[in-house]
Amino acid sequence: DGLNARSVAGATKYLGTAIKIKVMADSDANTLATNFDDFGAITPENEMKFPALEPARGVFNYTAADIIVAQAQASGQILRCHNLVWHANNPPWLLKGGFDNATLISILRNHITNVVGHYKGKCYAWDVVNEALNDDGSLRTNTSIWYSTIGPAYIPIAFAAAAEADPAAKLYYNDYSCEKNNAKAKAVRNLIGTIRAYGAPIHGVGLQAHLTTGQVANSSVLASNLQAFADLDVEVAYTELDLSTPADNPNLAQQAADYATVVSACKLVPKCVGVSLWGFTDKYTWINNSLPLPWSADYTQKPAYTSIADTW
Ligand code: XIL
């Protein structure tokens, strides 16, 4: 029995992972990443981000992302495509700025039309807008190149452009620190209304779930927050789950329990479609000095592996 519930007949929820080219180049790691019994969904960790796909204005490079897409398809895995619009991780040509409102809107639309069009029919979901909110629920303003020039309309403009380019993809808003019902979660619910008021569709909310071992709310608290989104007629998913624990003093039993708590919350909510991990082996985690994932750096299964598999 693996991690991916979809590998069991009749089950619909997926357990997925992010991967990156560097992980694919490591054959021991890639053998784990392509196993459908463990992973039913793949998210490219960096290869679909703005600077990777449009390194110069109007110049698109799909080489690395296409390699990930082809491998996922060959492995029977659905794709969570990530991401189209983010305040962070933008290319120098874009950050240099100096674009007026109309020009930046056309850059935004052109990026989305090209990228979503290139992957049309291949992405189960797109994270259209990533991390637009501050933790207090206000929109990121001066820290976002998009907001600074376009204002709050950049968000519905992005969803509308994505819907036009691939009408079948599920379009998500994705953010962190809104796994519990706090000011930010409330702001995400309001944002759904704002996007729709503009006439654009939104189909899903992704909760990143970069969480800390020993500091996770119980599964009914997590589930009721998921349900509050679902009540607005969107699906929900945990999109980037990892549970940091210090490398010099890890609490692997608590980590295993916390993984089970998050997976249980998804299981409790019919509109929760799945859980994606942000990597799977501690060898390639993005978090420094931490052991946040279900496989150790030498590819042995940690207690978290068994607890996730048993929870579905
Ligand atoms: C991270 C990647 O894991 C790193 O390799 C990269 O250097 C920075 O981005 N929220 C997100 C992800 O939506 O795209 C981020 O991924 C982690 C936080």
At the fourth level of CATH, the homologous superfamily is Glycosidases
Share of β-strand residues: 15-25%
**What compounds sit in this structure?**
(3S,4R)-3-hydroxy-2-oxopiperidin-4-yl beta-D-xylopyranoside
As a whole number of angstroms, the C-alpha radius of gyration is 19 Å
GO molecular function: cellulose binding; endo-1,4-beta-xylanase activity
Enzyme class: hydrolase
Family: Belongs to the glycosyl hydrolase 10 (cellulase F) family.
Pathway: Glycan degradation; xylan degradation
Per-chain topology:
Blueprint: E1 14-19, H1 21-24, H2 27-33, E2 41-44, H3 50-53, H4 63-74, E3 78-86, H5 92-95, H6 101-118, E4 125-130, H7 145-150, H8 154-165, E5 170-175, H9 183-197, E6 204-207, E7 210-212, H10 219-230, E8 235-244, H11 252-268, E9 272-277, H12 303-311
Parallel strand pairs: 1-2, 1-9, 2-3, 3-4, 4-5, 5-6, 6-8, 7-8, 8-9
Helix pairs in contact: 6-8, 10-11, 11-12
Bound molecules: (3S,4R)-3-hydroxy-2-oxopiperidin-4-yl beta-D-xylopyranoside.
Structure in words:
This protein has 312 residues and is α/β, with parallel strands linked by helices. The chain contains twelve helices and nine strands. Strands 1-2-3-4-5-6-8-9 form an eight-stranded parallel β-barrel, surrounded by five helices. Strand 5 (170-175), helix 9 (183-197) and strand 6 (204-207) form a beta-alpha-beta unit. The chain starts with 13 loop residues before the first strand and ends with a helix. The relative contact order is 0.14. The model has no long low-confidence stretch (mean pLDDT 97).
